[in-house]
Amino acid sequence: MMDNQRLFLVGALALVLLLIWTTWQRDYSTPPPQAESTEAASESSAPAPAAEAPEAAADPQPADAPTREPGAEGDDPTRTDGDVIRVETDTLLVQIPLQGGNIVQARLPRHSVSEDNPAPYTLLSPDDPLFMAQSGLVSDEGSAPDHQARWNAGAERYVLEDGQDRLEVPLTWSNGDGVEVMRTYIFERDSYVVRMVQSVENTSDTPWRAYQYNQLRRSSETEGPGFLGAASYTGGVIYSPSEKYEKISFGDMEDGNLSRDIDNGWLAMIQHYFLASWVPPRDRELRYYSRFDNGEYVLGQSSSWQTAEPGETVSFENRLFAGPKEQRRLDAVAEGLELTVDYGWLTIISKPLFIALSWIHGVVGNWGWSIILLTLGIKLVFYKLSETSYRSMARMRKLQPEMQKLRERYSEDRQQMNQELMQLYKKEKVNPLGGCLPILIQIPVFIALYWVLLESVELRQAPWILWIQDLSVRDPFYVLPLLMGASMFLQQKLNPAPMDPIQQKIMMGLPFVFTIFFMFFPAGLVLYWVTNNSLSILQQWFITRQIEAGDKKANA
């Protein structure tokens, strides 16, 4: 017969053990083989065209593509600009090397590395861990710029000035035989979306045919909460209107290559708080593919073939989102992109909780107080259920002396003891399981809120008060974990103690064990637990006083 508090602690302990196991798997499982160097990875191939021109996307297959050195075909030897273009906007700091013409580095000036390191957070990088966006064109004759081609530019630095809402960064390439390609990156103010347009002008005497591919390449380095924190998913995802949200993990990419035609979809590589995603134009079917290449992981998409007749111009387009997993932005970019904020199987509960938390933050302007007020709101919603549970525990506490006598009297006859206990419950009209159902109903809500606080980038580096200047990392002075342990200890004192001496010792030790665990949890999560425990103590104390007052009045 398990009282409410015991069930709650067992569930919480199971959750902590799950977090320990997932962290162990992330940190100590056998890692996949790594690339020997970034240069080796850069020599990987672009997807090659299928033998025949399909109606939909081309089937990408590995094929060797030569590395183009300065001065090779398509280069302008009189070029005077630098080898790397730097782009600065209010949301992105981007580097585009002319060798490849890809966005290989993207830093986020609105998001610093940490509270102690104000440098912009680096999302895309050619270094370890490698994470970059690549694009290219593939033609029948090989006369098209792949992701290793050398481009030309008219300037080394582009800056989005005050009062300017749009910034265009053009790159040019020529095969020397009448095919000119202009790749234009378009940046906008207050946006993490980079639109890429590739216009191909054919001034030759023969038709020119090609398709575009866009891919994300990264190493398997993971990012997530520290010791004892839940491991956030790091890997690939694809979305389609029919299959919805699907994870393509690093293990999946090692096991086999993905090849699937998807209309109105997108792909992404996600990690804790941030992601990069290729979002193609709507109402176009593309071939989605994956590859495990030289110890690194590639997830990409290729368009259908397009033909430019002599004198014609054709264009290819795509959008790259590289930024934080802010749900209001993700919703506006593409359908389903907000699902990259991964709440797991409790999304149906977590999302309304996040909406409520965001609304409260819009009123009070502080995420710490928002967590407290949301927890208070949840306690109010479940007040009647909790009241039933606490009343059951109060009655059980009242019967403890008589229960202890029965246990001592029938210590050698367990069957008789259980019968006597059931008679006692029946006589006093007490249901020993009356506290279980209310807490079971509330557990999914508590776990859902846990994932909201863990996954929401809005809480990253968000201050509360005094020493808590980042709710996404642990309390630097461990004040909140100590308060949590004290509140759990006080809750135990208000609950009926187990009859078994061994169980009593275990229950008494749990607050100390949980205090140690929670020392490594993000401060926002611990704040939620402290608030929830404190409100539970107040509610339980109030209900117990009511019952005691009623008993005194009945006996008067």
Automatic annotation (TrEMBL):
CDD domains per the UniProt record, alphabetical: 5TM_YidC_Alb3, EcYidC-like_peri
Quaternary structure, from the entry: Interacts with the Sec translocase complex via SecD. Specifically interacts with transmembrane segments of nascent integral membrane proteins during membrane integration.
Domain Membrane insertase YidC/Oxa/ALB C-terminal intervals: 367-545
Role summary: Required for the insertion and/or proper folding and/or complex formation of integral membrane proteins into the membrane. Involved in integration of membrane proteins that insert both dependently and independently of the Sec translocase complex, as well as at least some lipoproteins. Aids folding of multispanning membrane proteins.
Protein name per its UniProtKB record: Membrane protein insertase YidC
Family under the similarity heading: Belongs to the OXA1/ALB3/YidC family. Type 1 subfamily.
Low complexity bias: start-end ranges: 35-65
NCBIfam families per the UniProt record, alphabetical: PRK01318.1-3 (NF002352), PRK01318.1-4 (NF002353), yidC_nterm (TIGR03593), yidC_oxa1_cterm (TIGR03592)
InterPro entries given in the database record: Membr_insert_YidC (IPR019998), Membr_insert_YidC_N (IPR028053), YidC/ALB3/OXA1/COX18 (IPR001708), YidC/Oxa/ALB_C (IPR028055), YidC_ALB_C (IPR047196), YidC_periplasmic_sf (IPR038221)
Recorded topology in the membrane: Multi-pass membrane protein
Source species: Spiribacter roseus
Disordered as annotated region, ranges: 29-82
Gene: yidC
UniProt key word DNA-binding: no
Amino acid composition bias (Basic and acidic residues), ranges on this chain: 66-82
Pfam family, one: 60KD_IMP
Major location (coarse): membrane
Keyword Transferase annotated: no
Membrane-crossing residue ranges in chain numbering: 367-386, 432-453, 510-530
UniProt keyword terms in alphabetical order: Cell membrane, Chaperone, Membrane, Protein transport, Transmembrane, Transmembrane helix, Transport
Membrane insertase YidC N-terminal domain location: 85-355
Annotated localization: Cell inner membrane; Cell membrane
